[in-house]
Design goal:
The complex is a heterotetramer, with 2 copies of chain A (142 residues) and 2 copies of chain B (389 residues).
Chain A: H1 13-18, E1 20-24, E2 30-31, E3 49-53, E4 57-66, E5 79-86, E6 91-96, E7 109-120, E8 125-134
Antiparallel strand pairs in A: 1-2, 1-3, 4-5, 4-7, 5-6, 7-8
Chain B: E1 4-11, H1 22-37, E2 46-50, H2 54-58, H3 63-70, E3 79-84, H4 89-102, E4 109-116, H5 122-130, H6 145-160, H7 164-178, H8 192-197, E5 200-203, E6 205-206, E7 215-224, H9 225-231, E8 236-245, H10 260-273, E9 282-284, H11 290-299, H12 308-314, H13 331-335, H14 339-354, E10 368-375, E11 380-388
Parallel strand pairs in B: 2-3, 2-4, 9-10
Antiparallel strand pairs in B: 1-7, 1-8, 4-7, 5-6, 8-11, 10-11
Helix pairs in contact in B: 1-3, 4-14, 7-11, 7-12
Classes of the chains: A mainly beta (142), B alpha/beta (389).
The structure holds zinc ion (2 copies).
Chain lengths: 142, 389, 389, 142
């Protein structure tokens, strides 16, 4: 039984822990996750895609409440998944926490929090990374 | 480029095919198309197979060789290619089979799609389907396939005022069509309340907004048009065949309420076919989720952006009384969605319609059809424009 | 059909690329070929990707869209196709890219192959590679990939008197060549005793009779010949491009000491190229195991059946002093064997040779080359015949 | 984690337990495993591929001793894998048992024995099927 799911994620660990994307040195467009080639500048951007740390602030572009989850990560359903429009430009896929589903609205301001993402159940590896919490709400959970 | 025509089409029943393995399904589909085309094994030069994930479903890669072998074609050592593009595997296989004939290298090409999904549990299917999205930056963070389309649905509701009821009408329509299709997985009409009251999968999409897990296979036989005309009474001409791509991750696209790849693939296919959208008499669109059919209707230009929900609710795309029937086969929703087969099954339906043998589903006088097949959340889209002779 | 030429070729280093993911490898290979071709992103019409098993290695399907996206080509919505045919995925991708250009539909096509294998354990690799054989009737009963070739080796020894030493000479030769290739996984010569004394994997094949587990990617840029001639000084023409299949299971084939698919693909490619085997100046053959190179030499007609072992031992296929060098790159054995990349890497080597830029490995005056890529135990074989301009 | 390996094999269980292949009603060629289309007669064989039980006797066409096994089935290495030329015509892939590796020769006569094939370790499902033992040797193990 192939159990490689846990293996490859370490390559992105630093980017995931510290929100490190890239900025195109030619047009200044910011990417997260990192890209080595700018979608606008193509070959002219190669070698100029510098690491760029996002501040972790943005707004909800859209969201869903997931009732049937991916079994790999042992996440409790239902959970809120959203696309977050970051202030620096890119959009990110992440879970929303510290808020109840009925309170979520498109456009609401959110910021990153560092949390457990899930466990690869065949290996017991625990993965960490960013989720987002609402700016206006008190942090209900640690 | 040589003009290319379809001279045979066939399909298995879609649904839970308990007794049949992937190889059984692939052979049955291919044989149905070969019989329909009235050709012999020794006429076949090449085989194309669309399949999404046999490696994960049944620990079997090398699927084109497998189907070739069990179809009895290995003794002739024909060319065989397996193509994978998530749920667009069938459409991408057809595009490449089309190029293979158009190039002049091969004269008779069988192209099939097949998937065997019901051996896996629901949870396993969720995981396997999620492999069509970005495993590192979407799936890892909890994105499932329904979740991605649910986020598009909510954005569409926000931007255009589309309602849950309008989305649900897509399911009602396609089940009504599926009830007329003896090969459909679901052959029963459903009402609006059934869709609205079903359990949620990824809010705002409920169980009846989602296409099912299915087994099934479909196949076509292609020839250069000139040869097809001397071989068959009513070949169907492939006037346009295109693939367009977009970012793998939904988050990386400027717009969440539209698929750029559908727009581009559609425009390119119509240009190639020298047609406009007004020339299309019927369409098979990729309704993996109800919202997907609405977005496709808008992106292909059948309606303006934001108007698909109301148009479906008005009945414009119904077989009965509609102006331009969409998904007469039942669509992915009711016909079923064995991923690798879907792009081919759509064309099989179009061929039956354009040849006037769609039975209770027949669209009278249809001469031009369009098919639209999506991989992932829109990272691969194929469009085919087909015309009767 | 339009004549098709190669105007750019590039590759990553092969081996354990610890820091690089599949998407990194795919982009690097593609970019190397694009740079070599001196084209811009906006020139590219379509991308073909050969990949065996990303679905199982990294839970990621839809690989053509992934590579398109991260290469920055999604913003142009180009056509993209992933092809899978086990270890022949690269060769089958090239054949389809060739048809795409030959057809007249696409003018500039990038075709690459990539695989990321070293993230998986050896046991996982054994299992994933076994998915290229018949999962139900070979793998289930204990067949591994080396076991299938070991059974061919023993049959060859029995029928032709081939010896373990002769097989081992293939490894010695290919490591000697690999020592001259800065992109090879192994760049060190080995002696006969090293091969003979290595631990057994599947008797009579030891560790040094087997190609390694590798990461790597390779890519080519194709154009119609006419355009290529005005674009590039020395395009390499694809004179022959063929795929042939055979039964998926080794047990179902009449002969165990020969691959019918190699014979057929080779003959068809030479016929298409209007060449004979005597016209070939160098070849890259699929030496996934040492016995495989011997069988390929015989099936392609470089030697008569049963004579390959002695011919290799005599040095006929060595770069230094041989008449017709085979696997100057080091072959799968020493260059490495990232499955999806191999069929493309072979052609990259041939292009470098035919353009006179193979450095220390240069075969002087070579104008015609042949490449041979095998999927599974011989169920898919592709052959390409290439000619310098 | 996808764990489907155990699921599909039941479809072949009867064929595997009872050596049921097919015989082409047109040319009499026997196939194992079963095919629904004859490689020689193609479409003329369809509907005429009748079930056909093999007697389980044959000779070793070739063999290998496997030292690195497929991890899924929990088979102890080394084991002997062979292609067996059956009397009825088809060739089969199977393990040889009740014999030591140095005693195996190409051409030796063998017959089927019913044995455990392996265990799918993620599910604990035990699979059974045929292996082959030498005709001339006493059955050393049950
Ligand atoms: Zn830029
Ligand atoms: Zn027969």
């Amino acid at each position: 039984m192939v159990q490689t799911e846990g293996i490859r994620y370490w390559r992105d660990m630093r980017a995931r822990y510290n929100l490190i994307g890239r900025r195109c040195g030619k047009c200044s467009r910011v990417y997260f996750p990192a890209r080595s080639i700018c979608l606008d500048c193509h070959r002219h951007s190669i070698g100029k895609m510098d690491p760029y740390k996002l501040q972790g602030r943005g707004t909800v572009s859209t969201f869903t409440i997931v009732h049937d989850g991916d079994p790999r990560f042992g996440v409790q359903v239902p959970y809120i998944l959203a696309l977050i429009q970051m202030e620096e430009g890119p959009r990110m896929t992440a879970q929303l926490v510290d808020i109840d589903p009925p309170q979520v609205t498109i456009g609401m301001r959110v910021h990153t929090v560092f949390r457990k993402i899930g466990t690869v159940h065949t290996e017991g590896v625990i993965h960490y990374g960013y989720k987002f919490a609402p700016d206006s709400m008190p942090h209900l959970r640690a | 480029m040589r003009d290319v025509a379809i001279v045979g089409a066939g399909t298995t029943k879609f649904g839970e095919l308990w007794n049949d393995s992937l190889r059984d399904i692939g052979i049955q589909a291919g044989f149905a198309a070969i019989q329909d085309a009235k050709i012999e094994s020794h006429d076949i030069d090449a085989l194309y197979v669309g399949n999404m994930a046999a490696g994960r479903y049944i620990a079997q890669e090398h699927v084109a060789a497998l189907i070739t072998d069990y179809s009895g074609l290995s003794s002739r050592h024909i060319s065989a290619t397996r193509v994978e593009a998530a749920c667009a595997s069938g459409g991408v296989a057809l595009h490449n089979a089309y190029l293979a004939v158009a190039s002049g290298m091969y004269d008779t090409v069988v192209v099939g799609g097949a998937e065997k999904m019901t051996d896996a549990t629901d949870a396993e299917n969720t995981e396997i389907l999620a492999a069509s999205a970005d495993a590192q930056w979407e799936t890892f963070f909890g994105a499932t396939f329904p979740a991605l389309f649910a986020m598009m649905a909510r954005a569409h509701m926000q931007e255009h005022g589309t309602t849950r009821e309008q989305m649900a009408q897509v399911a009602v329509k396609n089940h009504a069509h599926g009830a007329l299709n003896p090969n459909a997985q679901f052959q029963k009409e459903i009402d609006l309340d059934t869709v609205l009251n079903a359990g949620m999968v990824a809010d705002p999409l409920g169980v009846f907004d989602c296409s099912p897990i299915s087994d099934g296979g479909s196949a076509l036989v292609l020839m250069p048009l000139e040869k097809a005309l001397s071989h068959t009474k009513r070949p169907v001409i492939i006037r346009g065949s295109t693939i367009a791509t977009d970012t793998l991750g939904l988050h990386a696209r400027p717009k969440l309420t539209s698929m750029a790849a559908t727009k581009v693939a559609g425009q390119r296919a119509l240009t190639q076919a020298k047609k406009t959208i007004a020339d299309i008499h019927l369409a098979e669109l990729h309704d993996c989720f109800t919202i997907a059919e609405l977005i496709a209707l808008e992106d292909l230009g059948f309606v303006k952006a934001g108007e698909a929900g109301a148009a479906v609710a008005e009945g414009r795309f119904h077989l009965k009384g509609g102006q331009m029937p969409v998904n007469t086969s039942g669509g992915l929703k009711a016909r079923g969605h064995p991923c690798g087969a879907t792009g081919i099954a759509q064309v099989v339906e179009a061929v039956f319609q354009l040849q006037g043998r769609a039975g209770a589903r027949q669209v009278k006088g249809a001469t031009t059809a369009l098919t639209h097949n999506v991989g992932g959340s829109g990272a691969t889209v194929t469009v085919h424009v087909l015309e009767a002779t």
